[in-house]
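Lab notebook page, bench 4
Experiment: in silico fold of construct C2
Operator: M.H.
Input chain length: 294 residues
Purpose: comparison with the prior construct
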Amino acid sequence: MKALLKTVVCLILIAGAFAQTAEPQKKRVIERNATSVTVRTDISGAEVYINGIYQGHSNLTVRDLVPGIYRLEVRKSGYETELLSIQVKDGLAQEFYVSLKRLSGFIQLQDVPSGAEIQVDGIEYHSSYIELPAGTHSVSVRKFGFEPFLAEVTVFPDASSAVSVHLEEAEFRIENFSASRSLINPDYRLLSGRAEFSFSVTAPTAARLEVLDENGNAVYEHSFSEFTTWSQSFLWNGVSSSGEAVPDGAYTAVLLADGIREEVIVTVDHSLVLPLLSFTRAGCGTGTLPAVFK
């Protein structure tokens, strides 16, 4: 047993000998026969050990240690462990600040086509060689006209991981065709008098937007040239192709492209009145709910 204790003490002393000696950033005099050691870190929630014994998470204060030299160890998953030697002195409150270095590695995206968009964890990058924190990351590579490439990649500290990117051509699709407003009054020149049709596409092609009245007659048409990106939109202010205001009623906006048909309904009501400004105890703002007045 004595031999085991001697071995443990020797290991602690050896580790302490190789640890960097740290000076306190702050210190102040307290009563005699008392000690205080505060450990602060630039990363919250780091584990603090003194002579191998867990003390808690930073930031923390340990009191009434016997004066002497101690091994201070600060750990955090994904960061390099910091090992320091500190001297605890009688009658002093000392504060040590420990900065942790993030463990990181690299990913090398191979065969990325020109003009593709690269995102890692939702953040856009403009290089195919990317430094990232150690751990698992979500990689997305997109180019218009192709299906997105998605992958989960594990990054190891001080290492580079190669990721082969392969994009397949996408079939044409229309997604999320909708109108910003289902009820408009064309007499208004602001947003309440217009409906914005928005949608997304997956590949290049041309399209046509028709606005049909309740009898199925086209009152307005708009042509889209060949798409070059995903997101599309168009504003209709409740007028016909000749520029005249259409009568009240329900109108169907029809989007036609590559044999696909999508529809959404917008109602035109010239009696609709929206208060331009309203005041409440909470403040003021423009009206968003329709109100009809005689």
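Observations: Confidence is low (pLDDT under 50) at residues 4-17, 286-294. Helices lie at 2-18.
Next step: discuss at group meeting.
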